[in-house]
Amino acid sequence: MAIRWYWEDLQPGSVRELGTITPTREEIVDFATKFDPQPFHLDEEAARHSVFGALCASGWHTCAMAMRLTVDNFLRESSSMGSPGLENVKWLKPVYPGDTLTLRHRTLESRPLNSKPDLGLVRSVWEMFNQRGEQVLHMEGYGMFRRRTPAQPAA
């Protein structure tokens, strides 16, 4: 796949809509069974008696769905070189089976990496909303992207 986006294309304020995903009950239970086996992610009866009121996805599953949309609809066509990490993750509303989730990516900051003249660092926010327009996820973090034109060393 051809690269469409380099570090230079990721200017502060730029926004990308990264698609939708709809988790099923089976996907929620499967993820929870493997990675977050809390009762309200596994069992409808236990979930009814929880603060969530019904079976819901793990917050980590919500992050994983956001990552899938990011890779499929942005990173595969970018010069991404990975990430040094996240600094802020908030699960704002539960995600229930059948919710249709939409992901938006916004570039907050962008700067060249002095230690690696062929890379730039981008700070971004991902916001995920359910079909009612309620925000379910807020995530901030960094990505490293290859530069279209590497910086020249100082003379």
From TrEMBL:
<protein>
    <submittedName>
        <fullName>MaoC family dehydratase</fullName>
    </submittedName>
</protein>
<dbReference type="InterPro" id="IPR029069">
    <property type="entry name" value="HotDog_dom_sf"/>
</dbReference>
<dbReference type="InterPro" id="IPR002539">
    <property type="entry name" value="MaoC-like_dom"/>
</dbReference>
<dbReference type="InterPro" id="IPR052342">
    <property type="entry name" value="MCH/BMMD"/>
</dbReference>
<dbReference type="Pfam" id="PF01575">
    <property type="entry name" value="MaoC_dehydratas"/>
</dbReference>
<feature type="domain" description="MaoC-like">
    <location>
        <begin position="19"/>
        <end position="108"/>
    </location>
</feature>
